[in-house]
Write a structure and sequence with these properties.
Layout: H1 2-6, H2 12-31, H3 42-83, H4 89-95, H5 104-114, H6 120-129, H7 143-167, H8 171-179, H9 184-213, H10 216-220, H11 226-236, H12 238-264, H13 283-312, H14 322-355, H15 359-367, H16 370-373, H17 376-390, H18 396-403, H19 406-429, H20 434-441, H21 446-475, H22 478-483, H23 491-500, H24 505-532
Helix pairs in contact: 2-14, 2-15, 2-17, 3-7, 3-9, 3-11, 3-12, 3-13, 5-7, 5-13, 7-9, 7-13, 8-9, 11-12, 12-17, 13-24, 14-15, 14-19, 14-21, 17-19, 19-21, 20-21, 21-24, 23-24
Length: 533
């Protein structure tokens, strides 16, 4: 038991610090289970009888449809990019990750605008066929179309995970299978796909998390998923939203644990000692593959960007308006504080795991990734319920914490700690144990060793992590909508407000473009860090 708790290196202080931080951060999530005791509430009973299973079925349907689109778009181009040589390959390798910079709600808004009565699709038909032509309109305000649009935004999760796995597969295995008479399709399904399956599963899990967390697109398309249900329940009765959040938390936590247990049993060792050259093709096939690989980036990034630039050209005055400038300032100050705290907590957890190699240290680091699996609406409700339970009947501390943005910042930290962990984990893995161990053997404390030796090595990764976490916070919508104080706007909330309430994608376009711009910077920073690694 002692070895389990302390690990090989007995730095109890660091272990207790990591344990304390993790407990403080994740206790509100466990506390939300208290909401299951309110089953006698009339609104809770109404949810149980009439809403719960409809919400679950709709959520499952949206997840399955979006995952299918993401796999169809991401898996083939990952295989083609990793296996064959074709024109613009390096450019498209990066470009197909950029759609992840477009928030799902912006993707949905933009495509609904394109296919609206006065949208670009109608205008394009009139331009091609003349003004006397009777254009046909496609009604995209349906679940199936929303699945497609979400797939455009989320396929990079599948693509990037599978691309990394395909790239390290030993091509000599493919050559051996081909020499035995196996065709290209048979080699893909019998050899390559089983090897890439754990990575594919990881990408699917990330897509699932994003779909369940989405509120902006679901609300705009009137699709009642679990997250939308939590917003509706909160309007009826706060206890109802706590109950629904508790039910969903149990399901997601169980799925999260089962997924990682299954994934841990599917570890695959890739042999990359030889045969990693790209395959050469005929000129026609190379051009055909280039066209095919470019389609997802075109649909997921180029088309939305061009549409927003066109719409923003009618709202150039917004760029100099006081509200636009104040919104940028609010968003920046709101993002930088939790981003810095996330990095500090992540450094403590990772350094504790680095010096204390016990299973408890590993578990604490693993637990820090749970927040990203939980929808933002559930995290917001959990934080509110936790504070209200221990507050006075007048709820003075609750109102103060809302006005001071304390609850909002805490919820951001809880949700995006996983982003900080995964971004910094690779940097810690590249730190050799030799020099730090030698320094500690000469009497240097772990803290002094960290700042003198380890931190200078990982400093570039720390700065990148701060930027990446800030970008994710800027794009976060459900948590911000539930916990923002009155008359405090961010880029995400203004974009949602102008599309959902004023029904004007044109008015929202400058704010949406800025979100995509900072999102693109975050993606490029993260990719640059991985390439250096």
């Amino acid at each position: 038991m002692k070895k389990f708790l302390l690990g090989k290196n007995k730095y109890l202080g660091w272990l207790l610090l990591a344990l304390t931080l993790t407990s403080l951060l994740f206790f509100p999530l466990i506390f939300i289970l208290e909401g299951l005791g309110d089953s006698s509430n009339e609104n809770v009973q109404h949810i149980q009888q009439y809403l719960l299973w409809d919400l679950i079925r709709t959520t499952i349907r949206m997840v399955l449809g979006t995952v299918a689109i993401a796999v169809v778009l991401g898996l083939p181009i990952a295989y083609l990019t990793a296996t064959f040589d074709f024109p613009l390959r390096r450019l498209l390798r990066t470009a197909n990750i950029l759609p992840i910079a477009v928030p799902t709600y912006i993707m949905a808004f933009v495509y609904s605008s394109i296919f609206s009565v006065s949208g670009s699709f109608i205008k394009l038909q009139l331009y091609i066929f003349g003004e006397d032509f009777m254009p046909f309109r496609i009604d995209v305000m349906r679940e199936t179309w929303l699945m497609l649009f979400l797939g455009f935004a989320l396929f990079p999760y599948v693509y990037s995970a599978c691309l990394a796995s395909f790239s390290i597969q030993n091509k000599s295995l493919d050559e051996a299978a081909a020499s035995l008479g196996a065709g290209a399709w048979k080699r893909f399904f019998k050899l390559h796909l089983p090897l890439v399956f754990p990575a594919l599963l990881s990408g699917i899990a990330l897509v699932t998390m994003e779909v369940v967390n989405d509120y902006g697109a679901m609300s705009y398309f009137n699709v009642n998923t679990i997250t939308a249900g939590i917003f509706q329940a909160k309007q009826m009765d706060f206890k109802s939203s706590v109950y629904l959040s508790a039910m969903v938390f149990i399901g997601i936590f169980s799925f999260y644990m089962l997924f990682y247990f299954f994934k841990s049993t599917k570890k695959i060792t890739h042999l990359t000692t030889s045969g990693n050259n790209l395959k050469q093709l005929t000129k026609f096939k190379r051009i055909l593959i280039t066209f095919f690989v470019a389609i997802p980036c075109l649909l997921g990034f180029i088309v939305p960007l061009m549409e927003l630039l066109y719409l923003a050209s009618f709202r150039l005055s917004t760029l100099t308006s006081s509200r636009f400038l104040i919104t940028i300032f609010n968003s920046a100050q709101l993002a930088i504080i939790p981003a810095i705290i996330v990095v500090i907590v992540t450094l403590i957890l990772l350094y504790n795991q680095y010096i204390n190699k016990g299973r408890l240290s590993e578990f604490l680091s693993y637990l820090s990734t749970l927040g990203y699996a939980i929808p933002g609406a559930i995290i917001a409700v959990a934080v509110m319920a936790f504070v209200i339970y221990f507050d006075s009947p007048e709820k003075r501390f609750y109102h103060w914490s809302i006005d001071a943005l304390v609850l909002l910042i805490f919820a951001y930290i809880l949700r995006f700690l996983a982003v900080g962990y995964h971004t910094l984990e690779g940097a810690f893995l590249r730190i050799s144990h030799t020099v730090p161990d030698a320094a500690r053997s000469l009497g240097a404390s772990p803290l002094k060793t960290f700042f003198r030796i380890s931190f200078p090595i990982i400093k570039p990764a720390v700065l990148t992590t701060v930027a990446v976490v800030m970008v994710d916070i800027l794009k976060e919508l459900p948590i911000t909508l539930l916990l923002q104080r009155f008359n405090f706007d961010t880029l995400a909330t203004v974009t949602f407000e102008k599309v959902k309430i004023t029904e004007s994608v044109r008015d929202a376009s400058p704010y949406a473009l800025l979100l995509i711009f900072v999102g693109t910077i975050g993606v490029l920073l993260l990719m640059g860090k991985e390439n250096k690694g």
